[in-house]
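Milestone 3.1: sequence recovery, worked example.
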């Protein structure tokens, strides 16, 4: 099982980025998939999650309306489209997979993690 995150970078406030997370060794349609982020010196925090069916998504209040979580089951890849980026979005972003039934906000519920991709938003 492997999750490979990519797409991070250095952008200015108001810009957009799309993160990708390619999964191998399992089908993303059989897992709840999540995005988390961790800023320097902070705990890892929930960003978004998508249900196994792909129908239901959950977002942290801080990103609702700006970020969109989607997936491509054929490519076995999930995406996080991030618009209107703010300096406070600066963090390492991680994708994660959870075998449980419903999307969880809790990092410890997730079984597999990618390596993280750095997003830096300058003001």
């Amino acid at each position: 099982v492997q999750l490979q995150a990519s797409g991070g970078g250095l952008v200015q406030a108001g810009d957009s980025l799309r993160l990708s997370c390619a999964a191998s060794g399992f089908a993303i349609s059989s897992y709840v998939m999540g995005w988390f982020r961790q800023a320097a010196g902070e705990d890892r925090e929930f960003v978004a999650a998508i249900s196994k069916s792909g129908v239901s998504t959950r977002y942290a209040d801080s990103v609702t309306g700006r970020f969109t979580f989607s997936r491509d089951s054929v490519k076995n890849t999930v995406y996080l489209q991030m618009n209107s980026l703010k300096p406070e979005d600066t963090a390492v972003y991680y994708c994660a997979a959870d075998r449980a039934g419903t999307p969880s906000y809790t990092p410890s519920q997730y079984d597999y993690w990618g390596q993280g991709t750095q997003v830096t938003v300058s003001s």
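The mean pLDDT is 96. Residues 69 and 80 are 5 Å apart (CA to CA).
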